[in-house]
From TrEMBL:
This is Acetyl-coenzyme A synthetase. One of its GO terms (molecular function) is acetate-CoA ligase activity. Its cofactor is Mg(2+). Acetylated. Deacetylation by the SIR2-homolog deacetylase activates the enzyme. It catalyses: acetate + ATP + CoA = acetyl-CoA + AMP + diphosphate. Keywords: Acetylation, ATP-binding, Ligase, Magnesium, Metal-binding, Nucleotide-binding. It comes from Pseudodonghicola flavimaris. Residues 29-86 form the Acetyl-coenzyme A synthetase N-terminal domain. The lineage of its organism: Bacteria, Pseudomonadati, Pseudomonadota, Alphaproteobacteria, Rhodobacterales.
Length: 654
C-alpha cells in the first residue's frame, strides 16, 4: 500500500493475523490512549496492578513540570520488591519454565537454560554474598560484567536487598569505570576475570584493578569466573564469587522498598560535561518496563524473546532483564557480536532457539545488510513474528532489508524511540494497531504526550506537517527522577530550555497523519552505532593529552555507524602533526573513555573557527566534516575567517 500524501513511500497496514493476535488493535489503541491522557490517575491505577505490591499504592500521579517546582512521583505510597516481581511471583506457575537462555560468544560452547526456580536460587545466593560483603539497602553496587547470566543475577540481587546498581558497559576503560565507582560512592564492584566477545577477551578484572587504584580503599571487588584466565588477587579486597556461591544460602528475603526508592543509576552522555547518573525508581519504572515490553513486542506466553543489546545500556535493563522477567517471559542473553564467527550468527541463534521477537539496532542491521542476503536466507527464521529497532533513526533501506529479508514481509517492525532517561518506549508503532512507515517512530505509547516546539520561540506547534524539537508535556511512570547527586543538573538539562516541558534533546518531524519521525539530536550529543557520546567528553579526553592545545569534536554521517566521531585538533606550538601522533591520540581516547569513543577522523587544525567572544562555531565544523562546504552560512562574525579556508583545504580525506 502506498501513502496517499507521499506515493513514493510504501506503507504497511497490519496484517489480519497480526491484528487477531495483538493485545491492542487500532480501536483499542485510540480508546486506551484517550483514557491515558484524559485521566492518567485512573489509567495508571489500573495498570499499576500489573506488578505485585507489598503495600498497595493509594496515590498514583504526583507530578509538576512547572518552572521552579519540578516534581515527579508515581505510586508514591506503595511498597514492593522488584526482584520478587521478576522471580518469586512466577514460581507457582512457571518454576520450570526457562527464564533466561544464555548464548555464549563461542557457538561451540553450549547454551544454558536457566529456569525461574534456578534463577530464584542464584539471585538469592548472590544477594546473600552481597550482604556478607556489607551491602545494605540504599548502598550502591557497580556491575562491570560481560553479557553472562551473572549480570542479571547481580542486578536482581541488588534489587532483592534494596541496593542500587550502576552498570558500567564492559567496553569502558578503567578511568571511566573509576569515575562511575566514585560518582555514586559504590561499596562493591562486581566483575569477571575476562569478557569474551567476538573471539577476543577483554581483561575486565585487570581493568577493575586499575580503576580501583583511583577509588577508596574500602571498595570491595566480587569476581565471577568466566574464562578461568589469570588475574591478580588482593586478599581482603577481592572476593571469589564461584567459591562463595557454593556456601551461600539459597534463600534471601526480598526487602520492602518504596515505589520511589532508586532501583538503579545508569550513566549517560549529555551535551555538556561528564556523563550524568540517570536515576530510575522501583515502582513506576517496573510498571512501565513491563507494560511496554508486553504491548510493543506483542509478547505472549510461550514466546522466546531476544533483545541483542548489552545490559550496560538502558535497553538491556528494561528489555532484557526487568520488562521481560516481570512478565514471566523467556529472555535470551547473547554474549557475542553479530559478525562472529560470521555474519550469520544472529540468524543462527534465532533458528537455534526459535526466537519469536527480535530487537536490535539499525547499526547492526546496516552492517549485516552489507554482507549479503545468504547469511540470512540459509537460516530457518520461520519462528520470527516481530522485529524491533532501537537506538537511532533507521534509514528506509535498512528498514526494507530488515522487513523483506529477515522478516520475509510477515513480521511487523516496531521502531521504538526512547532514551536512558525515559525508562521505556515513548514513541513506537504498535504491531496490531498502526500502519507502519519505514523510518517513522509513529505514535506515542499510552500516557505519553509528545509536542513539537519551535526551537526559537519555544512555542508549541499544533498543526501538521511540521518539524521542531521534541518535548513531552507530561510525565509517564518510567521517567527518570533525578541525576544522582545533582538534582540541579536534572532540572537544568531537561526542564530549563523549554519551560513546562521535558526536553528530549531530539528533533522530530510530524507528518500530515500526525505520525512522528525522529530526525536526530539537536544538541552536542552524537549517536555512534546507537551509543550516545558527548562531544564534550571526547574533547576533554583529547585536551588532557600533553601535545594537544585545543580540540573540537563533531559528528558526521557514517554509513554503518550512523554517525562517526570527527575531531579537529590544534597542537601545542612545539608539536608537529605525524602519523604516529595520530595513532597515539586515537589510542589515548580509547584508554581515557573506551573503544566506543575511538575517533574516526582526526583533522589537524592550526586554528578553530571562533566568534570574537571566543565561542567555537560548531555549525561550521559540522558542515566541513560533512563535506558540505556550500552551506557554511555567515562566517563574517568569525574572529579570523581565514581558518575556515584552511580547514576546508585540509579536510581529512576519509
Ligand atoms: C536516539 C537508547 C531514532 C535518540 C534507548 C535518543 C532513536 C537517543 C531511536 C537515546 C529511534 C533512540 N529512532 N532515534 N527509534 N531510539 N534514538 O539514551 O537520539 O542510549 O535521544 O537510549 O538515541 O539514546 P539512549
Amino acid at each position: 500500500m502506498t501513502n496517499p500524501a507521499h506515493p513514493e513511500i510504501r506503507v504497511y497496514p497490519p496484517a489480519a493475523d497480526v491484528i487477531a493476535r495483538a493485545h491492542v488493535d487500532a480501536a483499542t489503541y485510540d480508546e486506551m490512549y484517550a483514557a491515558s491522557v484524559n485521566d492518567p490517575d485512573a489509567f495508571w491505577a489500573e495498570h499499576g496492578k500489573r506488578i505485585d505490591w507489598i503495600k498497595p499504592f493509594t496515590e498514583v500521579k504526583n507530578v509538576s513540570f512547572a518552572p521552579g517546582n519540578i516534581h515527579i512521583e508515581w505510586f508514591g505510597d506503595g511498597t514492593l520488591n522488584v526482584s520478587a516481581n521478576c522471580i518469586d511471583r512466577h514460581l507457582d506457575t512457571r518454576a520450570d519454565q526457562t527464564a533466561i537462555i544464555f548464548e555464549p560468544d563461542d557457538p561451540q560452547e553450549p547454551a544454558e537454560y536457566i529456569t525461574y526456580a534456578q534463577l530464584h536460587r542464584r539471585v538469592c545466593r548472590m544477594a546473600n554474598i552481597l550482604e556478607t560483603m556489607g551491602v545494605r539497602k540504599g548502598d550502591r553496587v557497580v556491575i562491570y560484567l560481560p553479557m553472562i547470566p551473572e549480570a542479571a543475577y547481580a542486578m536482581l540481587a541488588c534489587a532483592r536487598i534494596g541496593a542500587i546498581h550502576s552498570i558500567v558497559f564492559a567496553g569502558f576503560s578503567p578511568d571511566a569505570l573509576a569515575a562511575r565507582i566514585n560518582g555514586c560512592d559504590a561499596k562493591v564492584v562486581i566483575t569477571a576475570d575476562h569478557a569474551p566477545r567476538g573471539g577476543r577477551k577483554t581483561p575486565l578484572k585487570s581493568n577493575a584493578d586499575a580503576a580501583l587504584l583511583h577509588c577508596k580503599d574500602s571498595v570491595k571487588c566480587l569476581v565471577v569466573k568466566r574464562t578461568g584466565g589469570q588475574t591478580t588477587w588482593i586478599d581482603g579486597r577481592d572476593y571469589d564469587y564461584n567459591e562463595m556461591v557454593l556456601e551461600a544460602n539459597d534463600y534471601a528475603r526480598p526487602v520492602e522498598v518504596n515505589a520511589e526508592d532508586p532501583l538503579f543509576i545508569l550513566y549517560t552522555s549529555g551535551s555538556t560535561g561528564q556523563p550524568k547518573g540517570v536515576v530510575h525508581t522501583s515502582g513506576g519504572y517496573l510498571v512501565y518496563a513491563a507494560m511496554t515490553h508486553e504491548i510493543t513486542f506483542d509478547y505472549h506466553e510461550g514466546d522466546v524473546y531476544w533483545c541483542t543489546a548489552d545490559v550496560g545500556w538502558v535497553t538491556g535493563h528494561s528489555y532484557i532483564v526487568y520488562g521481560p522477567l516481570a512478565n514471566g517471559a523467556t529472555t535470551l542473553m547473547f554474549e557475542g557480536v553479530p559478525t562472529y564467527p560470521d555474519a550469520s550468527r544472529f540468524w543462527e541463534v534465532c533458528e537455534k532457539h526459535k526466537v519469536t521477537q527480535f530487537y536490535t539496532a539499525p547499526t547492526a542491521i546496516r552492517a549485516l545488510m552489507g554482507q549479503g542476503d545468504e547469511f540470512v536466507t540459509k537460516c530457518d527464521l520461520s519462528s520470527l513474528r516481530l522485529l524491533g529497532s532501537v537506538g537511532e533513526p533507521i534509514n528506509p533501506e535498512a528498514w526494507n532489508w530488515y522487513n523483506d529479508v529477515v522478516g520475509k514481509g510477515k513480521c511487523p517492525i516496531v521502531d521504538t524511540w526512547w532514551q536512558t532517561e525515559t525508562g521505556g518506549h515513548l514513541l513506537t508503532p504498535l504491531p496490531g494497531a498502526h500502519t507502519l512507515k519505514p523510518g517513522a517512530a509513529m505514535k506515542p505509547f499510552f500516557g505519553v504526550q509528545p509536542v513539537v516546539l519551535d526551537p526559537q520561540s519555544g512555542e508549541e506547534i499544533h498543526e501538521s506537517p511540521t518539524e521542531g524539537v521534541l518535548c513531552l508535556r507530561d510525565s509517564w511512570p518510567g521517567q527518570m527522577r533525578t541525576v544522582w547527586g545533582d538534582h540541579e543538573r536534572f532540572e537544568k538539562t531537561y526542564f530549563a530550555d523549554y519551560k513546562g516541558y521535558y526536553f528530549s534533546g531530539d528533533g522530530c518531524r510530524r507528518d500530515e497523519d500526525g505520525d512522528y519521525w525522529i530526525t536526530g539530536r539537536v544538541d552536542d550529543v552524537i549517536n555512534v552505532s546507537g551509543h550516545r557520546m558527548g562531544t564534550a567528553e571526547v574533547e576533554s579526553a583529547l585536551v588532557a593529552h600533553a601535545a594537544v592545545a585545543e580540540a573540537a569534536v563533531v559528528g558526521y554521517p557514517h554509513e554503518i555507524k550512523g554517525q562517526g566521531i570527527y575531531c579537529y585538533v590544534t597542537l601545542m606550538n612545539d608539536q608537529e602533526p605525524s602519523e604516529a601522533l595520530y595513532k597515539e591520540l586515537r589510542n589515548w581516547v580509547r584508554t581515557e573513555i573506551g573503544p566506543i569513543a575511538s575517533p574516526d577522523v582526526i583533522q589537524w587544525a592550526p586554528g578553530l573557527p571562533k566568534t570574537r567572544s571566543g565561542k567555537i562555531m560548531r555549525r561550521i565544523l559540522r558542515k566541513i566534516a560533512e563535506n558540505d562546504f556550500g552551506a557554511l552560512g555567515d562566517t563574517s562574525t568569525l574572529a579570523d575567517p581565514s581558518v575556515v579556508d584552511d580547514l576546508i583545504a585540509n579536510r581529512a580525506n576519509k
